[in-house]
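Hey everyone, long-time lurker, first post.

I ran two proteins through the pipeline my lab uses and got sequence/structure pairs for each. Pasting them in order. The first:
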Amino acid sequence: MDGGGSIQKRLAVNNGPLEIIYRDEQIIAINKPHGLLVHRTKIATERDVFALQLLRDQIGQRVYPVHRIDRKTSGILLFALNEDVNARLSTLFREQQIAKTYWAIVRGFTDATGTIDYALKKDNGQLQESITHYKTLAQTEIPVPLGKFETSRYSLVEVQPETGRMHQIRKHLAHIHHPIIADRPHGCNKQNRLFKDKWSMDSMLLHAKELEFKHPVTHDVLRLRAKISSEFERTLSFLKFEKIIS
């Protein structure tokens, strides 16, 4: 199974709580663990540990998060090291000039490829165009009954969101009836309970695996990759995916 790396540079992990997968004078990228918020937010006032503060303290300088991934999502998270580069990277994200690739483990057998074009509502009720592309990397069927089915089927999918709406991938995969395992509230409660009771697994299986973009200063093409988490790896193993993709 794939590790990580970059076509430009890969750094050893600094001594600290966060895995740094890329760093130069302008930008830094980490492999954010599941459950860690990017920064302080009103929706999780009980939390007092955040990626922004941890990284700032770890490298001893101010950092600027140029995008967000959900608390429950693991994977690559990009920061700028100064305000000018932060503005440039934010523009690249806004203009959809950064290619984002995720891995997800979902319920059922997905089509070989697909595009989900389904508008999503903002908090104020306004509809936003939302487009997600996916392809199936592997499928597995295991002899674990659930409900009226004697076996359980799962797919490992590679997902590339064209737009960047809140919870877009989670909502879109649920919309096509292939919810992400351990997703709450968009997932399947029966599957989530099965994974927790049978395998003690309750980490949402969505991983931000890769970012590809032109460096805002050097203009070199960067392809940054983040290793999947140990829980994601363990799930691939007990679902017997490793026989398919290793």
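...and the second, right after it:
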Amino acid sequence: MALLINEECINCDVCEPECPNGAITQGDEIYEIDHTLCTECVGHYDEPQCIEVCPVDCILIDPEHTESNDQLQAKYEKLTAD
């Protein structure tokens, strides 16, 4: 499952540098997560780091991009192979 940032985002800038895959970028109004790069930190950490540091709890599971742990691990391996 990829993650998403909802409209409660306050643009505090703490999530972006925590993402080991570079999946978080500043959007037009709030930060956004690229689902093609998001592995929910599988392969890097035990928990998604963006969720851990978010002060307003605006980062949720994206229901439109669900993936199993095996799929997230495969995505991690593909992203780190380059």
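Reply from user beta_strand_b:
Welcome! Quick read of the second one: The CA atoms of residues 51 and 57 lie 7 Å apart. The first helix runs from residue 49 to 53.
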